[in-house]
Design goal:
Strand content: under 5%
Order of helices and strands: HHHEEHHHHHHHH
Number of helices: 11
Largest sheet: 2 strands, antiparallel
Distance between the termini: 50 Å
Helix content: 55-70%
Shape: elongated
Strand order of the largest sheet: 1-2
Number of strands: 2
Length: about 250
């Protein structure tokens, strides 16, 4: 099985799954094979399969049921995915490359006032994590503030565009939504580490802290849907135990 996938491999797998659906190999109402079986069949990793299924989900071809699997909803695409759509994994990889270097440059340019702004935003990230609703406004503001500290308008525009894609790309937005449902939130300690590196005006440390943070984000996204399935299975098992206890009481 391939351990490393090309950035567009999941789209190739999605296209192959679509052909199988449209040819009747996976008829409407049928459950798609499990991720692990599809990974073996197509000789790719499970994260690639996961991204491919998300691509089918945003096209209206499958319905993903937590703890059960992906079921064919239609053989006709309900909505074509636009050229601006990217997956959450692709987007986070791009952020890792760009924002790590942005943090390094910001460390050499940042002002005391900007550092105070970041310190306030870290506190707001913690407040948003504790509040219902899943808002991530302070997280967005933190990363954009780091970009502005570079004094480079091209980098600011690039980071703004990457964050815009989180909500405008349907594939990216869907996986981020799944992550929120799995209770994955911005980690305060990781943002604090970035802030401390910037306070020390240490470009290497700032680069490393941002990279470590975004690698954790990448890991969280890869396993967001899997964690939801695990949690749902645990809830179902607990419900069965409670029903059984009532029958034997």
């Amino acid at each position: 099985m391939k351990s490393q996938a090309s950035p567009r491999l999941y789209k190739d797998i999605a296209a192959r799954l679509i052909r199988e659906i449209q040819s009747g190999n996976f008829p409407v109402g049928a459950r798609l094979p499990a991720e692990r079986d599809l990974a073996v069949k197509y000789d790719v990793s499970r994260p690639v399969i996961r991204e491919a299924i998300i691509a089918l989900e945003v096209r209206g071809l499958v319905d993903v049921r937590v703890g059960s699997g992906a079921y064919v909803r239609s053989a006709t695409e309900q909505d074509q995915v636009g050229a601006g759509d990217v997956s959450a994994i692709e987007l986070t990889e791009a952020r890792l490359l760009v924002e790590s270097e942005v943090a390094a440059l910001a460390a050499a340019q940042i002002s005391d006032e900007e550092l105070r702004e970041l310190e306030i935003l870290v506190g707001q990230i913690e407040e948003e994590n504790e509040a219902p609703g899943g808002k991530e406004e302070a997280d967005t503001a933190f990363h954009l503030a780091v970009a502005r500290a570079t004094r480079n308008s091209a980098l600011v525009e690039t980071v703004e565009r990457l964050w815009e894609l989180r909500s405008t790309s349907r594939e990216a937005a869907l996986l981020h939504e799944k992550a929120r449902h799995a209770n994955i939130k911005p980690v305060v300690d990781e943002h604090t580490a970035i802030l401390r590196a910037l306070q020390e005006r240490d470009p290497a440390a700032a680069r490393a802290a941002m990279r470590a943070h975004l690698l954790k984000v990448l890991d969280s996204l890869l396993f967001a849907t899997e964690q939801r399935a695990v949690d749902e299975a645990r809830r179902n098992m607990q419900a069965k135990r409670e029903r059984y206890a009532q029958l034997t009481a």
